[in-house]
From TrEMBL:
Listed SUPFAM superfamilies: Putative DNA-binding domain
Coiled-coil ranges (or none): none
Protein name: Helix-turn-helix domain-containing protein
Organism: Pseudonocardia alaniniphila
Domain Helix-turn-helix: 6-55
Domain of life assignment: Bacteria
InterPro entries registered for this protein in UniProt: DNA-bd_dom_put_sf, HTH_17
């Protein structure tokens, strides 16, 4: 996925229409998996992947 544009947590959350803290909390709880975790601990997200994960969460009744 080298050509994919990865988003910060704030950018991904904005695309999803949720607060960045909610997205970070979902990641910390293991409900969502970031595409990349930087050495600093910051998360980077692929928009298509995070949208798929959010759909799956909704279908399971666990989020969003």
């Amino acid at each position: 996925m080298p050509d994919a544009k990865l988003l910060t947590t704030a950018q991904a959350a904005e695309h999803l229409g949720i607060d960045r803290r909610t997205l970070a909390r979902y990641a910390k709880q293991g409900l969502l998996k970031a595409t990349v975790v930087l050495p600093s601990g910051h998360l980077r997200w692929d928009l298509d992947d995070i949208q798929r994960q959010m759909r799956e969460l909704r279908e399971q009744g666990k989020g969003g």
